[in-house]
Amino acid sequence: MTDVRETVSVDESSETALLHTLFHSDQGGHEQVVLCQDRASGLKAVIAIHSTALGPALGGTRFHAYAGEPDPEAAAVRDALNLARGMSYKNAMAGLDHGGGKAVIIGDPEKIKTEALLRAYGRFVASLGGRYVTACDVGTYVQDMDVVARECRWTTGRSPEQGGAGDSSVLTAYGVFQGMRASARHLWGTPSLGGRTVGVAGVGKVGHHLVEHLLQDGARVVVTDVREESVRRVRDAHPEVGVAADTAALIRTEGLDIYAPCALGGALDDATVPVLTARAVCGAANNQLDHPGVEKDLADRGILYAPDYVVNSGGVIQVADELHGFDFARAKAKAAKIFDTTVDIFERAAADGVPPAAAADRIAQQRMAVAAAG
C-alpha cells in the first residue's frame, strides 16, 4: 500500500518512474511509502515502511541533498526503499521485535535544517500511529531527535537528558568491531586484531569510535575521509594512525588485512572489488554492495564479506533498547552477540556453499516468514 500524504513536486515522467520504483523494483515488497511536504518549513521527505511482520518498523532518518542527481526526489525514494528493506533484515538478524523502515529528508542539512522543519517531519511520523519508529542517521543527530520527539512519541536516539539512549554510533562501532573479531577468527583462527592492518574509510560519527576499538586491540590503522577535519580529529588523538589520500588509495594499500567502509553505501562495486587488497571487508556503511552479484565477485577473489546489516546493527540495538527504558549495559551485551551471529553466518555460508551475504539473507527471511505466518 502506498500512502501519499502530500506528494513532493515531480513532473509526469518522474512520477511514472517513482511509481515503477515503488511497485516493481527489486527492492520491492514495501508495505507503505509516504511522500511528505510542508511548504511552510520547506520539508520534503520520504518515509518507507518495508515490513512490520516482526513489529513496528524501526529505522533512522537520513538528511541528504542528493546533489548532482538529475532527480533528487526520485533518488531519495530509491534510497529510502533500499534502506528500509535493509532495516528489515538488520532488525531480524539483531533479534529485535521490529520490522524495517527508513526516512529521508531531502536537502542540505547545513542549509535548511530548522526546528520548524524537524517538527513538521515529526508530525508526519506521528500520523503513522506507531507503525514507524524513527531515530538518527546520516545528517541527523541526537539533538534533532529531541526536537522531533516534541511532536512524535515514536522517536528514539534522543539525548540522555530527554530520557534517551544518546549517540547510537557508540554501539554501532562496537558491533562492527565484534564483526571484525569474528572475521579474524574465521580467517586467522583468533578473534584478535592485534598486528592486523585495518583501513577505515570514513571516520565520522561511527568511524572514529571504531578506530579507538581497533587501536586498543593492537591493530594498525589507516584512515581516509572526504572531510579533512574528521581525519585531523583522529590524528590529533592518535598520531600513529596512517592516512590515505582517498578511498581509491586506501583500498590498494599493500598489507591491508581488513577494509572497513564507514561512509555512504555502494562502496563495493565493479571498480573497487578487482583492486581491493584486503582479505576481508567489515564496515559500518549501509548497503555496501553496489548491485547484486558483487558478493559473488568478492567470494571469487577469496575476500570474506561480513554482511553490513549484521555487523552495523549495534546502533539499532541501542535505540531499540531506549523504547524499554534505556540500559547501556543491557544494550552493549546484546550488541556483543554480533560476534556470535557473524560466526554463525560464516559457518552457514561454508556449509551451504554460498557467500555470507546470501546466508545472512536466508536466516533473516526465515525469521520474517515465520513471524508473518503467525
CATH fold title of the largest domain: Rossmann fold
In spatial order, strands of the major sheet run 8-7-6-9-10-11
What is the ordering of alpha helices and beta strands? HEEEHEHHEHHEHEHEHEEHEHHHHH
- Profile the largest sheet: 6 strands, parallel
CATH architecture descriptor of the largest domain: 3-Layer(aba) Sandwich
Terminal residue distance:
21 Å
Low-confidence stretches: 1-12
- Alpha carbon gyration radius: 20 Å
- The total count of helices amounts to 15
The helix content, as a percent range, equals 40-55%
CATH class of the largest domain: Alpha Beta
Subcellular location: Cytoplasm
Pathway: Amino-acid degradation; L-valine degradation
Organism: Streptomyces boncukensis
Protein name: Valine dehydrogenase
Q: What topology does this entry show?
A:
Blueprint: H1 12-24, E1 32-38, E2 43-51, E3 57-64, H2 72-93, E4 99-106, H3 109-112, H4 115-126, E5 132-136, H5 142-148, H6 169-188, E6 197-201, H7 207-216, E7 220-224, H8 228-237, E8 242-243, H9 247-250, E9 258-261, E10 280-281, H10 294-300, E11 304-305, H11 308-311, H12 314-322, H13 328-336, H14 338-352, H15 356-372
Parallel strand pairs: 3-4, 3-5, 6-7, 6-9, 7-8, 9-10, 10-11
Antiparallel strand pairs: 1-2, 2-4
